[in-house]
Structures are given as C-alpha cells and as structure tokens.
Write a structure and sequence with these properties.
It is built from 7 helices and 7 strands. The chain is α/β, with parallel strands linked by helices. Bound molecules: NADPH dihydro-nicotinamide-adenine-dinucleotide phosphate. NADPH dihydro-nicotinamide-adenine-dinucleotide phosphate binds next to helix 1. NADPH dihydro-nicotinamide-adenine-dinucleotide phosphate (NDP) binds next to helix 1.
Length: 246
Amino acid sequence: MGRLDGKVALITGGARGMGASHAKAFVAEGAKVVITDVLTEEGEKTAQALGDHCVFFKHDVTSEEEWKDIVHKTEEHFGPISVLVNNAGIVIQEPLESLSLENYRKVIDINQVGVFLGMKSVLPSMKKADKGSIINISSISGMVGQAMTLAYNASKFAVRGMTKSAAVELGPLGIRVNSIHPGIIKTPMTQTPELEAVLEQMLATIPLGRQAEPEEVSALCVFLASDESSYSSGSEFIIDGGMIAG
Ligand code: NDP
C-alpha cells in the first residue's frame, strides 16, 4: 500500500528540479500526478519516465485562464484534485539599487500571484474531493532577509502569509494548507555560476555542512500530502540543515 493511494496531485514547475522529484516520490507512493510547467520538452520527458500515473500539461502559473484549464484537464484525466503543490518559482539576483520594476513584478507575478491563483483555482475541485492538502513552496528567504534577492524575499514572505490565511479559511472545509521553506537544494536554480562562486561561504553557515538533494524535500512533501500529517495546517516546515537556526 502506498502512502498516497487514491490521491490526485497537481504539481506546478514539475518539469525539472524539486517539482520533478516530488512527482517521482508521489507516483512511487501511489498518487496520480499532473505536472505543469512552462518547459514543455522537459515536462513531457519527466512525465513519460514516470508512466501512466503521471501526465504533463503546459501551464504558466501567472494566467488565471490557464489555471482553469489545468484544473479541468486534471479532473478529466484523474478526477478531483486532493493535493496541490505550488512549486513553480524563479529567482532574480540583483542589488536593490538596480532592480528594475519589471523584474520585481516578474518575480512577484510568478512566485506570489501564481500561488494565489493556484489555491483559488483548485478550491472547487478540492471541495469535490471532500478534503485536500495544499503545499506552498516558500523558502528560508520567506523567513529571513538576504542581500541581492529583495523581490524573491518579498514573494516568499507573502507565500508564508497567504498560507496562514488560507489555512484559517479553508480548515472548516477539511483543506489543510502548509508552507515548506527549503534552504539550499541541488537543482538547476542553484547550479548557477553566481551561486557556485559563493557556495563555499554559504556551506560554512549550514550546521549540517552540505546542500540537500531534492529527494530530501520530496520526503517532507509526501508527508504533508498524506493523511499522516492530518493535524498539520497553517504551519511552516523549514528544511535547511539548520541554516537559520542560529
Ligand atoms: P527550478 O528552476 O529547477 O524549477 C522551477 C521550475 O518552475 C522551472 O522548470 C521553471 O521554468 C518553472 N517556472 C518558472 N516560471 C514558471 C511559470 N510562470 N509557470 C510555470 N512554471 C514556471 O527550481 P527549483 O526546483 O530549485 O525550485 C522549486 C521551488 O523551490 C521554487 O519555488 C523555488 O523558489 C523554491 N526553492 C528552491 C530552493 C533551492 O535551493 N533550489 C531553495 C528554496 C526554495 P524556467 O526554467 O523557464 O524558469
């Protein structure tokens, strides 16, 4: 028996990185999974590798119309949605002084508005499923400030706040809402020349002394998607090797 038997999950930004890892873990635990992303080729490849219990649809999380379409397609394919992982996100590293309004809005649109639209759009489907779990991927950047990532911090703090409001509002419907706050995880987002350059300094600030593999975050996602976490809602799950504990 899988820990996610009978669950239908929708994971955004699932073509690669952590989203793809969550999809693999969910399918292994018995869930039926729709992954969505703006990266069509990678998304289709990821879904194909996971077999019949995973499909990919192209989807930009900033579009309300596309959200409606994705919810409809997911229901047609697998039935009402019981788990939503709002995972899609981008980071733009730039000093405040030169950060353009356009870039600020781009980060807010994808990381923050995308999460709002996701929670709003799946609600009718989760009501049909009779209960649900929404997992919003924030970051330690939603817990503490950092230089060079002001827009990212703003969006991830907002995700943390929205999670709490939604948890209070949706609890009576049997829908749980939690946020996950990863530290430094090995994905294409962090494998950049800029980050490579400062990685050694960053590792020195992590008590466990290393980056995490995406699968370590997926294990937490499986827990929050499953009924094992039946009494967790409105909570922040930090997974950072102790980085912001000190
Ligand atoms: P990746 O860049 O590997 O994956 C994110 C995926 O989201 C990409 O495929 C990306 O496509 C896609 N995406 C971007 N914009 C949109 C959009 N408008 N609609 C749909 N999909 C989109 O990143 P990670 O796996 O590392 O990150 C996953 C989540 O975890 C993000 O929310 C991130 O902020 C968060 N996080 C990551 C950490 C890390 O250390 N890696 C730490 C803390 C939080 P494209 O390449 O075109 O942008």
